[in-house]
Design brief:
Shape: elongated
Catalytic activity: L-glutaminyl-[peptide chain release factor] + S-adenosyl-L-methionine = N(5)-methyl-L-glutaminyl-[peptide chain release factor] + S-adenosyl-L-homocysteine + H(+)
CATH topology of the largest domain: Rossmann fold
Radius of gyration: 21 Å
CATH class of the largest domain: Alpha Beta
Number of domains: 2
Helix content: 40-55%
CATH superfamily of the largest domain: Vaccinia Virus protein VP39
Number of strands: 9
Pfam family, one: PrmC_N
GO molecular function: nucleic acid binding; peptide chain release factor N(5)-glutamine methyltransferase activity
Bound molecules: glutamine
Strand order of the largest sheet: 5-4-3-6-7-9-8
EC number: 2.1.1.297
Family: Belongs to the protein N5-glutamine methyltransferase family. PrmC subfamily.
Length: 278
């Protein structure tokens, strides 16, 4: 009997069809075949008409199965790009979102020496900012030990061990623990979804609950972050906080009340939704 081996081109097309529930089926299939084969994008194109080895097909089938069940590609590969750099991710950290790059841009424009990142997760905000600011240093906090060890891994990969420190702290415990240290820039992408918001839960069911949900109104973390800013932001410093698309007014009111005398503005993202309080 003669077997016709499956080519890379065929495996890609077949994978994309299997993933047709995903809006990024083609891309997902390519990333997963790349992961299964160890070939990068250019090597995959070059191998287009070659037969895929049996062991690669087996691994690929398993990755396609996980993706079909809704697991994010970033958790399957263990990596997500953010602000032009690769970050290690796993289910203990939120997957960095492109919308959050807006906070990094705002931080860079403020030219800080000292940066605080509240709820650092993978460390993506702090580490991206420090990578672009060769003389700055910073602190990232999180309540999850697993998240902090992921952030530490990313710190080492980006060669920032000497300039970034991570601490296991809740928002409420952060001011006391920092003593008299003040920061030029405070960043946070806090959890901001209301408990029981089923629609949001569905999309993020593989991600850590505590990274996403924040009390019945989704504003609990904003109230705590506002208190940290009141205590730890240098008088001439700036804070940039990510908010939900429907929190333009509610979050702005919280920060205004906690920070009398400071200017508080809501900024929209590229899609035109409120995305950040500055
Ligand atoms: N700071 C991390 C990020 O922006 C984690 C945020 C979170 O877990 N809510 O991705």
């Amino acid at each position: 009997m003669i077997f016709r081996k499956e080519t890379y081109a065929h495996a890609l097309a077949r994978g994309a069809r299997r993933l047709k529930v995903s809006p990024t089926a083609q891309l997902d299939a390519r990333v997963l075949l790349s992961e299964a084969s160890g070939l990068d994008r250019a090597q995959l194109i070059a191998a287009d008409r070659e037969a895929v080895p049996e062991a690669v097909l087996t691994r690929y089938a398993e990755l396609l199965r996980r993706r079909r069940e809704g697991e994010p590609v970033a958790y399957i590969t263990g990596r997500q790009e953010f602000y032009g750099r690769p970050f290690a991710v796993n289910p203990s950290v939120l997957i960095p979102r492109p919308e959050s790059e807006m906070l990094v841009e705002a931080a860079l424009a403020a030219h800080p020496q000292r940066v605080l990142d509240l709820g650092t997760g993978s460390g993506c905000l702090l580490l991206s900012a420090l990578s672009e600011l060769p003389r700055a240093e910073g602190v990232g906090t999180d309540v999850s030990r697993e998240a902090l060890s992921t952030a530490e891994r990313n710190r080492t990969a980006l060669r920032l061990d000497g300039r970034a420190r991570f601490e296991l702290l809740s928002f409420a415990d952060t001011p006391l623990s920092m003593g008299t240290e003040l920061f030029d820039v405070i960043l946070a992408n806090p959890p901001y979804i209301a408990e029981g918001d089923e629609q949001a839960a569905g999309a993020a069911r593989f991600e850590p609950h505590s990274a996403l949900f924040s009390g019945e109104d989704g504003l609990e973390a904003h109230r705590e972050v506002a208190q940290v800013i009141a205590r730890l932001l240098h008088p001439s410093g700036s804070a940039f906080i990510e908010i939900g698309y429907d929190q333009g007014e509610s979050a702005e009111a919280i920060y205004k009340e906690a920070l009398p005398g400071r200017s508080v503005l809501t900024k929209k993202d590229h899609a035109g939704y409120p995305r950040m309080v500055a």
